[in-house]
């Protein structure tokens, strides 16, 4: 089933929902309307109990070129634009209690790079590229780009990419650890769907707790991380999925998750 709006499409296939940026003529640039459609789409699939994994991708030759620079009025109060619509996108992906896979089909520039980085798994076409290009228009990184680049690359490399805004080809992004996989362009959609199906077939409750735990540990002390692990383990062990997993292990069969 496919749901279509002006700038966003949602395609559902079993337990997998694919959210598609659908402004190919604008390189899937994000104007206010598209951002709010995207927030709405992400919140809808997050709340849909039949959806157990999500793919985020784009149409055409771009994943997303980031902010639609033609929407000049949105940058007159850029702090409100970022806080009011970009931050909710990043927060919704981060908080969603199910895995989100970025299938980067082409250019991922500025906030488009942020959309990819905030996802839990990142696949890219071999022709894709990334660019922290905010500085080229006199702006600073947003949409969680600074959070992920500094943590995953270190300050010096992150600053270098932001200061230069140079394109980072998919192969280089993979070497740097920003991508899980590079896939031939014509195989990207199928590979992303297969990965999403695999995750959707896993223990949803345990995966949700793992996602929450891994996103929390960089902000808390070692002792607090140990306490969080213990608390989440108690939660997971009390869930029917654990009983099923333990039983399946003893019976030497594949588990049938709730």
Automatic annotation (TrEMBL):
The keyword Nucleotide-binding does not apply. This is 2-(1,2-epoxy-1,2-dihydrophenyl)acetyl-CoA isomerase. Belongs to the enoyl-CoA hydratase/isomerase family. It comes from Geodermatophilus ruber. Pfam families: ECH_1 (PF00378). GO terms for molecular function: isomerase activity. The keyword Isomerase applies. Keywords: Isomerase. Coiled coil: none annotated. It comes from the Bacteria.
């Amino acid at each position: 089933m496919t749901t279509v709006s002006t700038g966003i499409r949602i395609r559902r296939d079993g337990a997998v929902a694919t959210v598609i940026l659908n402004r190919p003529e604008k390189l899937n640039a994000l104007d206010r309307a598209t951002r709010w459609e995207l927030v709405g789409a992400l919140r809808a699939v997050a709340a849909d109990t039949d959806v157990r994994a999500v793919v985020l991708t784009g149409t055409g030759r771009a994943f997303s070129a980031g902010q639609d620079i033609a929407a000049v009025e949105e940058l007159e109060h850029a702090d409100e634009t970022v806080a009011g619509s970009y931050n909710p996108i990043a927060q919704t992906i981060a908080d969603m209690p199910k895995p989100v896979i970025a299938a980067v089909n082409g250019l991922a520039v500025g906030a488009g790079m942020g959309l990819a980085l905030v996802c839990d798994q990142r696949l890219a076409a071999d022709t894709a590229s990334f660019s922290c290009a905010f500085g080229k228009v006199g702006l600073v990184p947003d949409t969680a780009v600074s959070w992920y680049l500094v943590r995953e690359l270190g300050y010096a490399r992150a600053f270098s990419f932001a200061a230069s805004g140079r394109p980072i080809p998919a192969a280089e992004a993979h070497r740097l650890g920003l991508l899980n996989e590079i896939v031939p362009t014509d195989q990207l959609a199928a590979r992303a769907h297969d990965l999403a199906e695999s995750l959707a077939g896993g223990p949803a409750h345990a995966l949700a707790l793992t996602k929450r735990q891994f996103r929390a540990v960089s902000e808390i002390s070692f002792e607090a991380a140990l306490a969080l692990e213990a608390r989440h383990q108690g939660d997971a062990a009390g869930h029917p999925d654990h009983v099923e997993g333990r039983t399946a292990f003893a019976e030497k069969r594949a588990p049938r998750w709730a």
